TrEMBL record:
One Pfam short name: PTS_EIIA_2
InterPro entries: PTrfase/Anion_transptr (IPR016152), PTS_EIIA_type-2_dom (IPR002178), PTS_Nitro_regul (IPR006320), PTS_SugarTrans_NitroReg (IPR051541)
Organism the protein comes from: Alteromonas pelagimontana
All residue ranges annotated as the PTS EIIA type-2 domain in the record: 5-147
MF terms in GO: protein kinase activator activity; protein-N(PI)-phosphohistidine-sugar phosphotransferase activity
Designated name of the protein: PTS IIA-like nitrogen regulatory protein PtsN
Biological process, per Gene Ontology: phosphoenolpyruvate-dependent sugar phosphotransferase system
Amino acid sequence: MDIQTLISMDRTECAVHCNSKKRILEIISGIAAKNNPQVEEAAVLTGLLSRERMGSTGIGNGIALPHARLPGLDRVVAIVVTTEPAIDFDAIDNKPVDIFFALLVPEEQTEGHLQTLATVASKLSDRDTVKAIRKATTSDDIVTALK
């Protein structure tokens, strides 16, 4: 899976002011629903919260990969949000998170879901990419950093 096919300007937000884990998941759910008519905001939020209850998707280094499988989706949808300031997200390294790369995948795509997560995690393990995302002042800057 090519990460460039997942991201778009209309599903990217830069320097969102937020102060809690639940609120950032609400913001992500709103962005997903606004730009994908087949997705309901409440269903996205429920899916993301359910996944977080199984264990935090905060992978460390200020990065989280919230994700959920949803019925009715016909393709993978990515939402990228940075926050200002970083927020407590129960990440594995106990550090606050300021980069959120959320993935919503069709319910039946179990194997594809894991491959997509691995691709995104690999891209976000690149220090230069992460540095560029953190320096971003616009959504366009974030999209450029990820390409």
